[in-house]
Structure formats: structure tokens, C-alpha cells
């Protein structure tokens, strides 16, 4: 069972916040002991999720949790927004689908970059994405 050792929260309400999130998540991956490739995976996923919350969800909050379990450390990203929710989750997870001007790789790409991925959304009630990656034992 995973234990949360550190929890930090960041607002996602401006372009500057997106940059802050990238730097904070990079520092957290270093703190966890991730190698460069996994650091890049986690930072990319965090960036995609934060950008989605900002652009499509009207802003939100990212919590970064440092985790431990026997033989491994990990990082959990929890991004919440108060937006309109995602009416069609299956479509939103499909590469190339976008409700805006992006490339449509955000949610599906973030899911592939992380080892655990959970999306909770309801129309009119916002979206919460929880994504976790572990160091290799």
C-alpha cells in the first residue's frame, strides 16, 4: 500500500501557473529519484493535464504527492477543475480528438506516460484526473 510522504498543491489559472507546475513536477521527480526519461514522462503528463484543466476546465488545482511503498518511490498527480466536465470520455481518450485547437494527444498521451490513470468527470461538475508513476525497483 502506498503512503503519501509529501503533498504540495499548485493553482492552474494562468500561463505562468503552467510553467510553475512544470518546474515543480520536475523538482518532485528528482526528489523521488526518477531517471531522466521517467522525469520527462511525468513532467509531460503533468503539463498536458494542467493545460487541459486550464484551457478546457477554466482552471483548477494540481496536487503533487510523493509516495513510498516497499521497494519503490512514486509520484501521484491529482488535477481538478471546475469546468463543464467531459461528455464523452471514450472520445476524449482517443488520439486526435480535441474539443479545441490542440493536437488531441493530452488525455490519451498522459495515460500512456503514467502507470496508473483514473479519470472522474460529470457534465457540469468538473473533472478530476489522478495519475501515478513509480520508480523501477
Summarize the structure.
This protein has helices spanning 15-32, 36-55, 89-92, 106-113, and strands at 3-12, 60-69, 72-81, 116-121, 127-134.
Structure description:
This protein is globular. Helix 1 (15-32) runs antiparallel to helix 2 (36-55). It has helices spanning 15-32, 36-55, 89-92, 106-113, and strands at 3-12, 60-69, 72-81, 116-121, 127-134. The protein has 4 helices and 5 strands, in the order E-H-H-E-E-H-H-E-E. It is of the alpha+beta class.
Strand line-up of the largest beta sheet: 1-2-3-5-4
Rg of Cα set: 14 Å
Q: What is the overall silhouette?
A: globular
- Classify the secondary structure makeup into a structural class: alpha+beta
Helical content class: 25-40%
Mean pLDDT: 89
Number of helices: 4
Oligomer: single chain
- Measured distance between first and last alpha carbons: 15 Å
Annotation, overall tally of beta strands? 5
Strand content range: 25-35%
Low-confidence stretches: none
Largest sheet: 5 strands, antiparallel
- SSE order: EHHEEHHEE
Topology readout:
Blueprint: E1 3-12, H1 15-32, H2 36-55, E2 60-69, E3 72-81, H3 89-92, H4 106-113, E4 116-121, E5 127-134
Antiparallel strand pairs: 1-2, 2-3, 3-5, 4-5
What structural keywords apply?
single chain; 137 residues; alpha+beta; five-stranded antiparallel β-sheet; 4 helices; 5 strands; 36% helix; 32% strand
Amino acid at each position: 500500500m502506498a503512503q503519501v510522504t509529501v503533498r504540495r498543491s499548485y493553482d492552474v489559472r494562468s500561463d505562468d501557473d503552467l510553467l510553475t507546475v512544470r518546474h515543480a513536477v520536475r523538482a518532485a521527480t528528482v526528489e523521488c529519484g526518477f531517471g531522466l526519461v521517467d522525469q520527462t514522462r511525468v513532467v509531460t503528463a503533468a503539463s498536458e493535464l494542467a493545460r487541459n484543466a486550464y484551457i478546457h476546465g477554466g482552471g483548477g488545482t494540481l496536487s503533487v504527492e510523493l509516495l513510498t511503498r516497499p521497494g519503490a518511490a512514486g509520484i501521484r498527480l491529482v488535477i481538478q477543475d471546475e469546468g463543464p466536465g467531459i461528455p464523452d470520455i471514450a472520445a476524449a481518450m482517443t488520439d486526435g480528438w480535441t474539443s479545441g485547437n490542440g493536437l488531441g494527444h493530452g488525455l490519451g498521451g498522459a495515460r500512456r506516460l503514467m502507470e496508473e490513470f483514473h479519470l472522474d468527470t460529470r457534465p457540469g461538475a468538473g473533472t478530476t484526473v489522478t495519475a501515478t508513476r513509480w520508480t523501477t525497483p
